[in-house]
Write a structure and sequence with these properties.
This protein is an alpha+beta fold and 290 residues long. It has two domains: 178 residues, DNA ligase/mRNA capping enzyme (D-amino Acid Aminotransferase, Chain A, domain 1), CATH 3.30.470; 103 residues, OB fold (Dihydrolipoamide Acetyltransferase, E2P), CATH 2.40.50.140. Helix content is 17%, strand content 39%. The protein is built from five helices and 18 strands. Strands 3, 4, 5, 6, 7, 8 and 9 form a seven-stranded mixed sheet that branches. It has a five-stranded antiparallel sheet with strand order 14-13-12-15-18. A hairpin with a 2-residue loop joins strand 13 and strand 14. The radius of gyration is 23 Å and the shape is elongated. It starts with 5 loop residues before the first strand and ends with a strand.
């Protein structure tokens, strides 16, 4: 069992000659072993996922142990929903592999032809990876970049998750957080259309704010946000919502059980991206606008 090397969260990217940068993929971290034309897939937690990804057809020129991320693409864009469908599915694997085919983005090699490569510098491991792995439609060598700032800005423009920085001379230290990641978060203004029932210490206020985005045709549901509040802000928002209760749901058809209000309070929300079905991914409340 291999315990993958990990990354710690940093606030911003940079550019220097000692580091290289990679795309932070939104998928399933996976260790692959290839021996005599047969491959196995191990998840970050050590579970065997081989039977769930029959479409990979991993090929190497010698036996090898690889590190990478299993992702799904649609029209050239990463689709988190796709890999979610594949993550723990053990039934109808053939069908789902056609609907949401996985791609293995390989960014490291730990062993080749029986030789342990973990103490070699990353830049040398990358060269060996290029010589050993046979790319295909479902297996790629993840690209690297020199300028972390430029890559980060590109990831923001493309609404992707962020970037990973690594020392070019760094060795592979299993389980250690010696790489670092910078998340490309976004922000926007949305309208509170209702709120869900709170539990525990928030039972007397609310659990999450139900959010909408205004379009010419009316409000469109974009999900709920339940994090980012302090006690004072929870009380302040709740009091304002109590004064503008409504029997009508701003979306017409209620998307979830909630107490509805007049859609007049705008809030600032930080989020990672929009999902394929139009919901905010990892939203966090940042403040009231009006």
């Amino acid at each position: 069992m291999i315990t993958p090397m990990l990354a710690e969260l940093r606030s911003e990217p940079f550019k220097d000659d000692r580091h290289l940068w990679e795309i932070k993929y939104d998928g399933i971290r996976s260790i692959a072993g290839i021996v005599d034309g047969n491959y196995s897939i191990q998840s970050r937690s050590g579970k065997d996922k081989t039977s769930m990804f029959p479409e990979l057809n991993l090929e190497t020129r010698v036996s090898a142990v690889l590190d990478g991320e299993l992702v799904c693409y649609k029209d050239g864009k990463l689709v988190f929903k796709g890999i979610q469908h594949r993550a723990n599915r053990i039934n109808n694997v053939t069908l789902t592999s056609k609907i949401y085919p996985a791609t293995y983005e390989v960014f490291d090699i730990l062993m080749a032809d029986g030789q342990d490569l973990q103490l070699l510098p990353l830049i040398e491991r990358k060269e060996i990876l290029g010589q050993v792995l046979i790319p295909s439609d479902n297996v790629r060598i993840a690209p690297t970049f020199d300028d972390g700032i430029a890559l980060f800005e590109e990831m923001q423009d493309k609404h992707m998750e962020g970037v990973i920085g690594k020392l070019k001379k760094g060795i592979y230290r299993q389980g250690k957080r010696e790489w670092f990641k910078v998340k490309a978060v976004q922000s926007g203004e949305f309208t509170i259309c209702g709120y869900t029932q709170g539990t525990g210490w928030r039972a007397s206020t609310f659990g999450a704010l139900v959010l909408g985005e205004y379009h010419p045709s009316g409000f469109v549901y974009v999900g709920s946000v339940g994090t980012g509040f302090n006690d004072a802000e929870i009380s302040r928002i709740h009091q304002r919502m109590l004064a503008i209760g409504s029997d009508q749901c701003a979306f017409g058809q209620p998307p979830e059980p909630a107490t509805w209000i007049k859609p007049v309070i705008k809030v600032a929300i930080q989020y990672l991206e929009f999902t394929n079905d139009g919901k905010l991914r990892f939203p966090s409340y940042k403040g009231m606008i009006n």
